[in-house]
Automatic annotation (TrEMBL), chain A:
Keywords annotated in UniProt: Signal
Residues of the Peptidase M16 N-terminal domain: 74-206
Name this protein carries in UniProt: Insulinase family protein
Biological source species: Shewanella livingstonensis
Domain Peptidase M16 C-terminal, chain residue ranges per copy: 215-393
Amino acid sequence: MKTITHTRMTISLSAIALACSLSISGCATSQKTSVDTVAASPGLVTASFTMPSYQSVTLDNGLNVNLMVQKEVPLVTIDAVVRAGAVNDVTSGMAYITSQSLMLGAAGQSKADIEQQLDFMGASIDTNADLEGSYIRANMMSKDVDTVLNIFSHILRQPDFDSAEFDKLKQRETVGLSQQKESPRAVIGRYFNKLVFGTHPYANPVSGNSDTIAKLSVEELRAFHKGYYQPSNMTINVVGDFDVADMTAKLNKAFGDWQTSETVVQPDLSQNLPTLTQPHVLLVDKPDAIETTFLIGGVGIRYDNPDYVGLTVVNTILGGRFTSWLNDELRVNAGLTYGARSGFSPYAQSGVFQISTFTKSSTTKEAIDLALKTYARLWEKGIDQTTLDSAKAYVKGQFPPKYETSGQLAGLLSDMYLYGFNDDFINQFQAKVDGLTLAETQRLIKQYFPQQNLQFVLIGNAEKIADIAAQYGEVTKVDITATGFGQ
Amino acid sequence: MALLMTIGVLSAPNVSATQAEDINSFTLENGMKIMVLEDSSIPNANMYIFWKVGSRNEVPGITGISHFFEHMMFNGSKKFGPKMFDRTMEAAGGANNAYTSEDLTVYTDWFPANGLETIFDLEADRIANLDINPEMVESERGVVQSERTTGLENSNWRTIQEALKSVAFAAHPYSWSVIGYESDIAAWTLEDLQQYHKTYYAPNNALVVITGDVKLAEVKALANQYFAPIPAQAPPKAVRTIEPPQNGERRVFVKKESVSTPNIMLAYHVPATSHADYYALDLLSSMLSQGNSSRFYQALVDKQLAVAAETYMPMSFDPNLFYILGVANAGVSAETLEQALIEQINLIATQGVTQQELEKVKNIKLMDFYRTMETINGKANTLGTYELYFGDYAKLFNAPDAYNQVTPADIQRVAQTYLIKANRTVGVLAATEESDK
């Protein structure tokens, strides 16, 4: 998305999955102004929001598909989610490059032919991978389902991995990595995961790096595809304007004869998780930087953590909405930044917690110190009832729009598969928020927010900020143009 | 065949999709127009307030003030003092944001439907009774300076566009970026801000769009209670400057050391959105850059000359620019990329486009239309945008037909008319500038 207009909103520095829909920005006052938090009106009852109905169907070959009808617009989203991501990489970037390579031609049809066909219908198929999953998403008008589903099944089941196209892809991706490093915001999360997880697979940068991508071969991709892209290791979610019986028949025709042929081997991600025993600072030198972009944090929580919802509420108060403590102090009171926030990014077996913001080079120390001081309020002062009530109203009120479109709902079903949660996530969300007490927030703060041995990533002009970096822990310095995302 | 299929879809829209007759609108006595779309798909609603003021309404010395003022609208009014706008809204389960463009300043409130009255109360108070506090102005300057800096740090597009606009426009206020010049951000005064509020934030200069799980009667009652008492004011002065014709190519170079390969931005003057050529230009934009079957992808990305090539044509009250941005592949010079981009444009001007290619981008537009209409926010923002830029929200629902009427000859004609050298500004962003030979 081009940044043509100017908004009050900041862009998140990393995927902060727990944070609700945020509007970080804009309102300022002096530090002298004393303002109480507004209590949620006791008479204001949020209308209930429940999981839209859907059907789960098992095809003849055991492949699970979920079908959710949404008739607001004549569109359909079809998602396939495969349990294979960067944590499965043998060579860094393998899952991601495999996902990108699915589009390089399939079942004998060239990349250009496929793209021409899809574009002509106004349809699209996008492929991607993250740490723990690979995704194929098709969007189309309802009238084009047959044609698009046919292409979709070819891409998923019979990618050609054309070697000439593969060489071009690798070249584009390598240059793309250099360009991503022109924007600190685009890459800082990868440096942070490497700093926190070290040799654990959760440190793997999904993108790979320029050296590893150059090494990848078509044969490796074929092996990765064969090993993981199988009916027993995936699910398909269809959301939109279609008839369930008709769609089930179409899916059976497209996928019913596809047999699982390999034993899927998954890494045990519960092993060798990091224990952070001292604070570290990774200083990423970008000599022409005009500001310092930074993350502070540590290990977070698993996706299936029973306290997930409660932590959403507590984090909302700390750094998950415009009036959060972090945004209020760093932006509104001090005018140091355009936005500051915090959040948990949960994975299947672990996760990260991060505070993120940016400031001009000359105010780096002031901003870091203020972020740390504000964070410390969690333990020093805790949360009061009025603030808790407001945060509870906020997370409930902002919840439904996160699951409004076919794409959002298909993505929810994909996450349910990958991370092992069910409809209760939606249906019990409100009750769990309502049930959160002040005493519980104290337990959550003590149990989950990393207080000691914080990890820091600072991207900026090292000549100006190296001395500041050294004040927060043992410093490792890397050049932003160096291969990869830290040591 | 494809054309028939497309028209078939349009003439028999899905029964659940929003249609023009679903929109209700009324105008208060003070001139404030309010549009309402009832939609109970989720238990939420939103309010979008479009103010007809943007960087277009500024003059040198106060550039960026429209955007800065947008920030100040959250900083306290009579009933809801400092910080209370956000705190009150969030306690009612709502969130908000705002954006400023060259033409508009738009405030967006997203809330559970039962918070509607709170939102009216909050908005009415800051429209009628904004209190601009000097201390807040100083703090907010730092915020906007940080917003400007982080944009330049993280976005090559923003860096090069800022320089290019200043060259492409000799007279019209589209010459400066929406965020404004650094020195102006540091300099504007309390009086400047107060005058801005008084001039532009009058109900007769606004359009309100409310969509979601609300009832028209309820909205009418609340609008009459909260917005109707705010007095109308004399309309703001019209923007008088008309950009003189460009009679020769202009160029600008921007140096940024961390840029790994050159970025090329081309910009051509094009008419305002209300002009009949809008649809042909918009389709031409899609032909060049939308999807991997597009001309730029095929000729530049697939051929390893560029890693990305995009187009952008903003909706606009006055004649504005049609932008093209290419990012060079490794080892490709700025000159080579520039020539390759221009060659693709000239191919359309000289050889035209096929019916098949045109049908393709029409289908892409139809898909985009449905996607926009999938959320209450997409509906609110787009309804307001069409009402203001086309003069009638109903044009949104006519848009697929308007696109359908464009012919290959129209595409070739607009390319020949607007995308020519004499009407072009070229921007180059790179780590080093070539030395004199």
